[in-house]
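Technical note accompanying the year-one report. For the benefit of new consortium partners, we illustrate the data format agreed upon in the data management plan: each record pairs a sequence with a structure-token string. No post-processing was applied to the example shown here.
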Amino acid sequence: MGMTDKQFQSWVRFLLGALKDMDKETDPEKKASKLSEIMENLQKTLED
């Protein structure tokens, strides 16, 4: 089952928001943790 354009745009907004949040983080450990979480979510998306 594919995504509609609106669903894809929403997904991209979610990803962009997560990346912006990670970019604002100053603590290296928290930044690494947020990046790891983003990558894990992307991997799960590929596996679904």
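Partners are asked to follow this layout when depositing records. Residues 26 and 48 are 32 Å apart (CA to CA).
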